[in-house]
Amino acid sequence: xxxxxxxxxxxxxxxxxxxxxxxxxxxxxxxxxxxxxxxxxxxxxxxxxxxxxxxxxxxxxxxxxxxxxxxxxxxxxxxxxxxxxxxxxxxxxxxxxxxxxxxxxxxxxxxxxxxxxxxxxxxxxxxxxxxxxxxxxxxxxxxxxxxxxxxxxxxxxxxxxxxxxxxxxxxxxxxxxxxxxxxxxxxxxxxxxxxxxxxxxxxxxxxxxxxxxxxxxxxxxxxxxxxxxxxxxxxxxxxxxxxxxxxxxxxxxxxxxxxxxxxxxxxxxxxxxxxxxxxxxxxxxxxxxxxxxxxxxxxxxxxxxxxxxxxxxxxxxxxxxxxxxxxxxxxxxxxxxxxxxxxxxx
Length: 346
Prior knowledge:
Blueprint: E1 12-16, H1 20-30, E2 35-39, H2 42-54, E3 61-65, H3 73-83, E4 88-93, H4 105-108, E5 111-115, H5 120-167, E6 171-175, E7 181-184, H6 186-192, H7 196-199, H8 211-227, E8 236-242, E9 248-258, E10 265-272, H9 274-292, E11 298-300, E12 306-309, H10 311-317, H11 321-324, H12 339-345
Parallel strand pairs: 1-2, 1-3, 3-4, 4-5
Antiparallel strand pairs: 6-7, 6-10, 8-9, 9-10, 11-12
Helix pairs in contact: 2-3
């Protein structure tokens, strides 16, 4: 048979036999196709396997004689399997009895018994077969390890996302393509008054969307599912929402689409901006009050430079607003007082 076609493999073979002519015969047959390690007895074979594992270059197959003077092949095979349970075995024997029946099941796996005298081509083909099965098993194990790693990484990512979801200050709400709630974080519970258990499966149009806006929401969802796109996707907008108690309040909203060809969904990020709007209204009211005050009022920064003046002040002093903004208060001195007076005043 053409043995050269099997060259350049990465398989390593361990040959263990106390008879030199057997070792040399196997070496001559296999050396062009495999990386070989030849040992005379069991102790040396075990040491060789241990070293191969330390350098992460394990043997694929061990070919050994069953009857060796220092340690028999079965004992050697058992000790090798204790070190490396994946190694495949070829045991050679001149005995006629069925040796396999005396072996435990764990040792019989991936083991072939060859009777002496043997045909060297048969040993070569059996070696090929066991090397291929070893490579297949290694590939499956590597892929299993990679899959396990990806699963662990995925679980870690999900745990991080879950932690963000649970501790986020903003409301995070996920809905399906029918507008039914599929996720509802603690911030949403606090903001809207619905617990996660009671709102899951309910429609937004029946819960947090005010009655005047429900038909528009339904129509917008339908249009998006039919034609794609939408005026609010990927933008931050301000709308109104409704709590469980019926109270309507302003919220800031951002919506992203969850890509799923079969059942697309959406995640909404909401923030109650009622306090912000109230503060803005209060500031507007205070500003109007200052603007309408009959007395002249100015505001300065820490450097005593004027940053704002009301109309009454401008009327009293005759200055235009642009003339005083950024100027120091010393601009207003009348020169009727001493320098010490102004130094103390300003």
